[in-house]
Amino acid sequence: MADQETPSATYEELAAIEDAFEEIDTEMIRKQYALSTPVYTKRAAVIAKIPNFWPLVIEQAPQEIDQFIQPKDSQILVENLTSFEVTRPGIAAESGPDSAGSGENPRSFKLRFEFKANDDFEDTVLEKSFWHRRAKDGWSGLVSEPVNIRWKTGKDLTEGLTGMASRLFEARRKTGDFENRGLQEYTALKKKVEHANGMNTSFFTWFGWVSSRRYVSAEESAEAEAKRAEAKGEDKSDGADPEAPDLENEELADDDQEVEVHEAGEDIAVSFAEDIWPGAIKYFTQAQEQEDMSDVDFEEMDDEEDSADEDAPVDIRGLVGASKPNGSRSVSGGAPPSKKRKT
Amino acid sequence: MADQETPSATYEELAAIEDAFEEIDTEMIRKQYALSTPVYTKRAAVIAKIPNFWPLVIEQAPQEIDQFIQPKDSQILVENLTSFEVTRPGIAAESGPDSAGSGENPRSFKLRFEFKANDDFEDTVLEKSFWHRRAKDGWSGLVSEPVNIRWKTGKDLTEGLTGMASRLFEARRKTGDFENRGLQEYTALKKKVEHANGMNTSFFTWFGWVSSRRYVSAEESAEAEAKRAEAKGEDKSDGADPEAPDLENEELADDDQEVEVHEAGEDIAVSFAEDIWPGAIKYFTQAQEQEDMSDVDFEEMDDEEDSADEDAPVDIRGLVGASKPNGSRSVSGGAPPSKKRKT
């Protein structure tokens, strides 16, 4: 009954419009990055002078992140986090206006956390990259490689999960099959995750996160994007609709069972990149206002703010200004929130 | 104790960075608008061929909107909404790169709903503008003028609220004081709203919304922006920090008591402009998928889809294609959701 010769509107037309919007989004991401990078650099210089800036910001983190930060996680962040940064390696690296084939997607981003030398882990830098990639079946989204935090003896808040996730990832990389389930590292992690069953909820487990579905390598993604571009050129509908990828349900269900150490890795990552990072001053101001209201005793502060020289106690009030006159007000990082207020 | 001569970091520095980010945001809004307008025009041409496109999209609306759409509202939208559009009058109108003083803010937007001739109200177009304005005390946000829906006798789902809100607004405009509480229109609306106390929850009441705080006129806003620019030039802190406007708490508390017919006017407006409008094809596709799964009988459809000629019943399946072959698939608007599925 349907007249296939002269359809009123086709899914291809809708898909072409969505593709056009996606291209605009990509251009906007690049434009935004180019415009804001100098301002972020300026911001970094200012906030470097404010003790506890990032711990205070993260203390105000939205629910997406906050619900996963336990009191012990918070203590580590407060006492040791000195710097946080978001960069987009897919933008800095690329040469042409079209990201396809020129390396990573501009939607990919890297989160960098810097810590003081501390009692819990050997690392002073933890970097986690989130790659926006396309799988050969049409799925696209963020994937990441597990970060192996080098916990000190008896200090591992993740109970071995980040290490196990890293070892499985490396073992799979060696076999060239990122879905390999025949490895002992797979069996071990699967058993551990099933046994833990949500018991381990340390924020740091998030560093072991891989994907909401399964890992997709840069090679697979490049191939899938090339195939997709080709299909579009041939005006075929298969795979041309970004909203309806050509997935087999069985395959998807199977992939969904991939062992994963953190339930909300993508939400946390996106929240860091798109909320905490651009909104840091807003969150810091919020933290200051809460502090003003709660009448915090400045004597609670210790010398942890000075990351350059831990042996020399400093007068924090003298450094950052303890009062807020109406004129040129100096900014106090304030007392670090040594305990979660919201838990 | 604090060394005010050499502060580590000042609130002014943080405010200057926030200002720089805000300027970038403004530029991004303009850029996005310029790039996407031609694609929206193309989209309008395609979706004009799809019956019930906008009702199907709004049926998938996110919680911010959905929670306020009652079954009777939904029925009116499904049976009569033929077109929806978002424009930004502050961008089209302005000449220079700086919006201050060149008319409305680029963040301002206008929502336009087109309806068939219907049994409920006389209007075939309802337009509601949301102006991003700054009050003289530093507050900034969206305000709107009430839209007086011309309900047919006995059909007013808002129980007179949109009409009363409009009359109060016009009466205040005549007195030149948008905070005037000495008017009988104010007393009447206040009494009505207090009496209703959340009883009236028709979606259409939203057309009467004014502000989350109080109305701010274009004149007040222009004056406040000019004063703010001046204060920034003089490097004064008062009013220069967009996060900490110079509000007196008493005044704010008083303003918060302004009579308002809808509790969530701003959320709904923003959701329409920033979610429904750019994501319409995604929501439409979702609606199609739900329909595929629910195995809707096409015979349920009637001739309401043809707005141009209501007297001539048409074969919807013939027009839009009832099946989805793998080749060039035509798009069916599908059965209109005549009742809320989620309520």
From TrEMBL, chains A, B:
<feature type="region of interest" description="Disordered">
    <location>
        <begin position="226"/>
        <end position="267"/>
    </location>
</feature>
<dbReference type="GO" id="GO:0005634">
    <property type="term" value="C:nucleus"/>
</dbReference>
<feature type="compositionally biased region" description="Acidic residues">
    <location>
        <begin position="240"/>
        <end position="258"/>
    </location>
</feature>
<feature type="compositionally biased region" description="Basic and acidic residues">
    <location>
        <begin position="226"/>
        <end position="239"/>
    </location>
</feature>
<feature type="compositionally biased region" description="Acidic residues">
    <location>
        <begin position="289"/>
        <end position="313"/>
    </location>
</feature>
<protein>
    <recommendedName>
        <fullName>Nap family protein</fullName>
    </recommendedName>
</protein>
<comment type="similarity">
    <text>Belongs to the nucleosome assembly protein (NAP) family.</text>
</comment>
<dbReference type="Pfam" id="PF00956">
    <property type="entry name" value="NAP"/>
</dbReference>
<dbReference type="GO" id="GO:0006334">
    <property type="term" value="P:nucleosome assembly"/>
</dbReference>
<dbReference type="InterPro" id="IPR002164">
    <property type="entry name" value="NAP_family"/>
</dbReference>
<dbReference type="InterPro" id="IPR037231">
    <property type="entry name" value="NAP-like_sf"/>
</dbReference>
<feature type="region of interest" description="Disordered">
    <location>
        <begin position="283"/>
        <end position="343"/>
    </location>
</feature>
